[in-house]
Amino acid sequence: MRTPVFELHIKPLFRATDRDHMLFSLDLWDYDSVVANIDAVIGRVDHDGMPPDDSGGPWPDEWIALLRRWKESGFKRLQIGTADFTLARTSSAVTVKATGTFPAAGFTGWLQLESETDTSKTYVIYYEAPDSPDGGTPAAFTLREKYRAADTRTVFVHDGTGVRELQ
After folding, report:
1. pLDDT at 57
2. What's the structural domain count of the chain?
3. What is the pLDDT of residue 58?
4. Looking at the structure, do residues 30 and 83 belong to the same domain, yes or no?
């Protein structure tokens, strides 16, 4: 069974209303805040019947089990990776390309749309460590995101060095 990952499996469990209700004591969308308060969070969703019915109702048992498994497996999370990026605009498509080498053998990675507005879009590069360390040489990668050429918004990338505009 796959090890749960905060950004993929845990954070999506917390809806915007859950986050808003808890901001007085912790931020449910912040990894460090959830890790620091994990026992209280589990207690609230497991024993206190939280969230209340008017805010979506109590969590299903499967969600609680997933949260517990994430804790027991060591609070796995994604890493923001680094890469060399290029942006290519043709008459048929816009392509964002990231090239580089993973930090260790067995890692995987992808580009993901992090945010968008009417005038810009920002992609983030994520690395996921293997559940069990692999021996061997880190793999080189080339990752691409392609979208319609009619989309002329400014493109930004977010990686381990920060956020920057692609030209």
Report:
1. 81
2. 2
3. 86
4. no
| Distance, CA of 58 to CA of 22 (rounded, Å) | 15
Distance CA 122, CA 87 (A): 12
Does some domain include residue 1? no
pLDDT-derived band at 44 (thresholds 50, 70, 90) equals: confident
49 found inside a domain:
yes
State which residues form the domain around 159: 79-165
Q: Is the model's pTM score more than 0.90?
A: no
Within this chain, do residues 160 and 94 fall inside the same structural domain, yes or no? Answer: yes
Long-range contacts of 14-23 (CB under 8 A, 24+ apart): 15/56, 17/51, 17/55, 17/56, 18/51, 18/55, 18/56, 21/51, 21/55
**Do 84 and 134 share a domain, yes or no?**
yes
Give the pLDDT confidence score for residue 127 in this predicted structure: 98
83 and 161, same domain (yes or no): yes
**29 and 91 share a domain?**
no
Q: What DSSP assignment string belongs to the chain?
A: -PPP-IIIIIGGGS-HHHHHHHTTT--TT-HHHHHHTHHHHHHHHHTS-PSPGGGT-SPPHHHHHHHHHHHHTT----EE---EEEEEE-SSEEEEEEEEE-SSTT-EEEEEEEEE-SSEEEEEEEEE--SSPPPSPPPEEEEEEEEETT---EEEEEETTEEEE--
